[in-house]
Design goal:
Length: 358
């Protein structure tokens, strides 16, 4: 049985990004002499380099092929999930960069989501993938590491949905009903679009507004105003740009408890190789020295505590975004499972917590 662990890492520190412009392709034919016709026949068999590098401004007028150059050679690693058109109609000919954000296969067996890995042959289901989903739903979680798989330790990058350092692919399937939440960094914390600010005022836009535009074109942008200032959320770069600077943006699913697969599906999925991410969790908090300590219930001691790792796990299984209050030596603390923090109710001091699977 494979196990998994993760370390929460705050991505809220702002970074600067440089925009990349798109180049124009060569001018298309303007006359019909024999030499030009021959040239057109030859170039039409060649993939457009501008299309493959991000966008061709000639569009349908371009005399080069708007297809994936690797697919033409038969060695595209991305296969059906490639963002570029493939020969035979893998993508719309108008360009992979303008495809819908919801073209992954949909689950129709009663489950809300499914995580899979592929080693070049078959997609392989991951047992207990609700653990991966729960961490993916947290905006500040960058990755998860799975141990003892048929491929050894596997690290999944949540930002790019890629596997670090291995010739593997990862994907997340859902039933088409996922509610996607958009977040932006503010003072080194992830804030949900539409939530109330420190003054209790609701934000000017909602996640649903951003998601609607993203679904129509995941390489475009969403523009909104706050007062006299205009902001642009650029989907390709996943950043919010304003007159005063740039902030990171991320898109994560609202966690839903997994449903049981419908009868008859188990036979179909049994042909896939399955492996587990582990089922023995341990909850820990970060001490002053940076070391991690396991939550333990203690009675009648100087460090008396009313909560254990098992208590936290039971709450987490009910709702991974919930919170609970406990006491240690007479002091009241609040555990925020969604933010993965422990906060002293009197001093407001917070510590990080984490969930390690053994």
């Amino acid at each position: 049985m494979a196990t998994a662990q993760y370390d929460l890492e705050d991505e809220s520190q702002e970074e600067d990004f440089s925009d990349s412009g798109s180049a124009s392709s060569d001018e298309s034919d303007s006359d019909g002499n024999t030499d030009d016709e021959l040239e057109t026949q030859l170039t039409a068999r060649q993939p457009c380099k501008y299309y493959n590098s991000g966008g061709c401004r000639d569009g349908n007028r371009c005399r080069y092929l708007h297809v994936c150059k690797y697919a033409l050679k038969g060695n595209c690693r991305n296969g059906s999930s490639c963002e570029l058109s493939h020969p035979g109609g893998g993508r719309a000919s108008s360009g992979a960069r303008n495809r819908s954000a919801s073209q992954e296969p949909k689950l129709t067996d009663g489950r809300h989501f499914q995580w899979q890995l592929k080693d070049g042959n078959n997609w392989m289901a991951i047992d207990n993938d609700h653990i991966i989903e729960a961490q993916y739903s947290l905006p500040h979680t960058k990755s998860i590491k799975i141990y003892n798989t048929p491929f050894g330790a596997v690290s999944i990058d949540f930002k790019r949905l890629k596997v670090y350092g291995k010739r593997l692919r990862v994907r997340r399937l859902d039933d088409g009903n996922t509610e996607w939440i958009w977040y932006c960094t503010l003072r080194r914390k992830w804030m949900k679009y539409g939530d109330k600010d420190s003054k209790g005022k609701l934000g000017p836009i909602k996640s649903a507004d951003i998601e609607k535009k993203y679904q129509s074109n995941p390489t475009s942008s969403y523009t909104f105003n706050i007062g006299a200032e205009t902001f642009e959320i650029r989907f390709r770069e996943m950043q919010q740009v304003g007159q005063k600077g740039k902030r990171k943006v991320t898109r994560r699913p609202l966690y839903r408890h997994q449903q049981t697969a419908a009868a008859g599906v188990s036979e179909a999925t049994s042909a896939l190789q399955n492996f587990s991410v582990g089922t023995k969790p341990e909850w820990q908090f970060e001490g002053d020295s940076g070391a991690w300590h396991t939550f333990k219930k203690r009675r009648g001691t100087s460090t008396e505590s009313t909560i254990s790792s098992e208590d936290i796990e039971r709450k987490y299984q009910q709702n991974p975004s919930d919170s609970l209050v406990f006491t240690v030596h007479g002091h009241s603390y609040k555990l925020d499972l969604g933010a993965m923090t422990q906060t002293n109710q009197r001093t407001r001091r917070s510590r990080r917590i984490r969930r390690v699977l053994l």
